[in-house]
Amino acid sequence: MERRARVAVIGAGPAGLCAARHILSRLEAFDPPVIYEMTDHLGGTWYYEERVGKYENGYPVQSSMYRDLRTNLPKEIMMFPDFPFDDRLPSFMHHSSVQQYLEKYCQRYDIARHIKFNTVVEKVKPVSMETETGGAVTWEVISRSTCGDQKTQTFDSVFICNGHYSDPHLPYIPGIEHFKGKVLHSHAYRYPEPFANKSVVVLGARASGVDISIELAKVNAQVILSHNRPTISLPPPLGIRQASAVVGVLEDGSLQFQDGSVTQADVLLFCTGYNFNFPFLCPSDLGLDVQDLFVTPLYKYLLPPGFPSIFFIGICKIICPFIHFDCQVKFALAVLEGSVELPTQEEMEKEVQREVQRKQDTGVQMKHLLNLENDQWDYYVDLARVGRFTPPQPVLESLFKEVILSHNRPTISLPPPLGIRQASAVVGVLEDGSLQFQ
Length: 438
Ligand code: FAD
Hints:
Layout: E1 7-10, H1 14-24, E2 34-36, H2 75-78, H3 95-108, E3 115-116, E4 119-131, E5 134-145, E6 150-155, E7 157-160, E8 182-185, E9 199-203, H4 207-218, E10 222-226, E11 241-243, E12 246-249, E13 255-257, E14 262-263, E15 267-270, E16 289-291, E17 294-296, E18 310-312, H5 321-337, H6 345-361, H7 376-387, H8 394-408, E19 426-429, E20 435-437
Helix pairs in contact: 1-5, 5-7
The chain binds flavin-adenine dinucleotide.
């Protein structure tokens, strides 16, 4: 590229900060980025605030962080590859340590002065441009500051780093209007005390569902964890019951489970994940189909084949997010610098279709098509090979697999007379030397 490229970054969470850090390290090819952040702080998910609902300006509170959350990945595989966490921190940290880490990352790479805080991106649209070598696309970014000023700026590339843990996904439950208790989503959960001694049915047993169930049980809530997975190993003294999925609400307000049993509850807490949401885009203009839990086609889970200068960072799930962002950003910058020659639009579309088909053939449901889990490591190696950067160290893959295995393993059937107790993963050692389970 003859002149330095101008890049817009939407969001100052970990993905946006990572994008900014790498753009700022290549100032021979790029202008310093403009980072738009709708809130008054950086950190995205990791900035804890007690408030739920909406800000004064009407925009929804972004973070779904709850007060006592500890990370579900150890710091060794949470860190950006070139910026370790403080040695003194435990492997599974309180969320505030991650926020501090991101603030230090920002200082180290002098990112903050490029962030436009309190500025929401309202629209991003491609604009065709004639150049000497043919057609090209630039991007018009329309933003609005808290004080109401609207501004339009033009960029060569846009990094979409707006996160996908802010728009609650609420699966429809027939008869839900009959439920007499309180209904909420984990997005609006902050701490367990208001639920003390209440009966709570928690829907969904991924990380948040399990974690929040344990928090609730510790304040003597009677918890039923409702899910479709094999029985999960939970600390026995807490008395959390597990049940099949809730399939409906009866006219008297009781919840009915898939196995036909029913229960009354004070609270129905959805831990059912989040929708993708890009309110500033018209997906069909980019040839994209955006559904609640799926976005396609994105070549290498990153770019729409027809518009290879807009990058969706971090839409995959069950990954090591910071490592993932780092690889995707390096690959995207290699594309912009011209050191990666992309296949034709048609070839990229076909490759995405083949990958979707391969997964569907093995029975993967649509809502899980973006889950990478163990496949993430081959993905990083592939991005690194094509983008010519060093892939994550293989030891990180081993560590991730151990952690996932310890999270996922269901209760194992053992001869009862031996009295072997089973517990969830050890997540830390307390000051008095006792082991703490999940
Ligand atoms: P976010 O952190 O969501 O940041 C997005 C940013 O974009 C926000 O600051 C938002 O304000 C801004 N934004 C959005 N829309 C606009 C707009 N239109 N204009 C301007 N700005 C905008 N990951 C781990 O690695 N380990 C964990 O233990 C872990 N635990 C988690 C627990 C919970 C409860 C949740 C919800 C997530 C957890 N994650 C964990 C995943 C976590 O979300 C990622 O680590 C990471 O924060 C995602 O970064 P992001 O930058 O993509 O998105």
